[in-house]
Amino acid sequence: MRVLLVGGGGREHALALGLAGDPAVSALIAAPGNPGIASVAELRPVNASDPSAVAALAVETAADLVVIGPEAPLVAGVADAVRAKGIAVFGPSAEAAQLEGSKAFAKDVMTAAGVPTARAYVCTDEESTARALDELGAPYVVKDDGLAAGKGVVVTDDRSAALAHAAECGRVVVEEFLDGPEVSLFVVTDGEAALPLLPAQDFKRIGNGDTGPNTGGMGAYAPLPWAPSDLVDGVMRDVVHPTLAEMRRRGNPFAGLLYVGLAMTATGPRVIEFNARFGDPETQVVLALLETPLGGLLHAAATGTLAEHPPLLWRDGSAVTVVLAAQGYPAAPRTGDVITGADRPGIIHAGTARRASDGALLSAGGRVLCGTATGPDLATARDAAYALVGGVELAGSQHRTDIAAAAIDGRITIPA
Ligand code: AMP
């Protein structure tokens, strides 16, 4: 099977490692890829969000399967363009990707499907926003309606900051605050059959102890030692299958990766958000534990044959990833600095580039790379991930020092 992987971040590096490790994958091409992905795939330049360019590349490279990593190409219709060429593609149609592309659309689907989530109002002006804030009360949650790379959400006790964010965004969803630890559950689906991956937890805020602004994600671990044993079955029953059924009913079946972001509240798991693709950096830890060959799994979802796929196999133990971010991230990341010590297994590249003149590795994005490690238990995996990140030098870089710490120390509790 020849596979074309679209994207060039940490998630795609993790996907590339998984695909390259599948004996059924005979050729792996990544577009545009990154310097880390280059060690396991042939790189081709492409504008990943240009549907006709990606479809043409899929034809040119004789791809049997196209795997689309990021959300922007999905929302732009890249999966539709590839499918129109008769090529199997892992990733939802533009219509179905609205589950991520519009928070208001996602809320509408959740309401119709009876999915437990936060009460919410879609607001487009100051008056309706103020009314919604006052009705729902503090802490205030205000979300940009459109794609914002995980950074369009403000959670604050400051009413004027909430109003200011809404004014900046235009159209927002104002939401009830959901109290409880968060879970990311990835579900591989062909629109009807659905296979859950291991639940993971990521760390959205820049600072230790979940302080500071939201980011794309600063670290992750899996599995979750504190999660109730019936969590996944319950979410499949109450969230995933009703949502997939509602999407089919609307004539826009969702096939690809349904990312369910949950809060474990006193009244049970409730959906914070849907995404239409693998989460970054949770993918790094979840795929590090997946033993089932990744190419075959994604191909089954892309071809509507997931019901015949064997049950997933997982490695014992735990995985942890720690993100190294550039100085100034998330507000104004500095790029172009030399990185040393990154040429080691377990280092996953996110925002890196090679300097043309001498091949030196440079920072080229906010989240630069991450150290991903597995171990027999969470503490061992965490120590190994920190050892990886500790061996990398990048001027001014930042990382959290408390990834997985609360889980290891048994400090995570679900509100009663
Ligand atoms: P989202 O882009 O919707 O995932 O939001 C980013 C982050 O904001 C989430 O991972 C949560 O940490 C936080 N968040 C979003 N919605 C809520 C909510 N209703 N209650 C509490 N926290 C939220």
Output the keywords.
416 residues; alpha+beta; 5-stranded parallel β-sheet; 5-stranded antiparallel β-sheet; 13 helices; 24 strands; 26% strand; globular; binds adenosine monophosphate
- Order of strands across the widest beta sheet? 3-2-1-4-5
Global mean pLDDT: 97
Backbone CA Rg: 20 Å
Secondary-structure-based class equals: alpha+beta
Q: What's the end-to-end separation, in Å? A: 49 Å
Strand content: 25-35%
Which small compounds were modeled alongside the protein? adenosine monophosphate
Per DSSP E runs of 2 or more residues, the count of β-strands stands at 24
Task: Please give a structural write-up.
It is a single chain. With 416 residues, the chain is an alpha+beta fold. Helix content is 30%, strand content 26%. It is built from 13 helices and 24 strands. It has helices spanning 10-20, 51-60, 71-76, 78-84, 98-101, 103-113, 126-136, 159-169, 231-249, 282-289, 294-302, 378-390, 405-408; strands spanning 2-7, 27-32, 42-43, 65-68, 88-90, 120-123, 140-144, 153-156, 172-175, 182-189, 194-196, 201-202, 205-207, 211-214, 219-222, 256-265, 268-275, 318-325, 339-340, 347-349, 352-354, 361-363, 367-375, 393-394. The strands form 7 sheets. A 5-stranded parallel sheet has the order 3-2-1-4-5, with helices on both faces. Strands 12-15-18-23-20 form a 5-stranded antiparallel sheet. A hairpin with a 4-residue loop joins strand 10 (182-189) and strand 11. Helix 7 packs across helix 8 (159-169). The longest helix has 19 residues, at 231-249. The mean pLDDT is 97. The structure holds adenosine monophosphate. Adenosine monophosphate binds next to strand 7, strand 8 and strand 17.
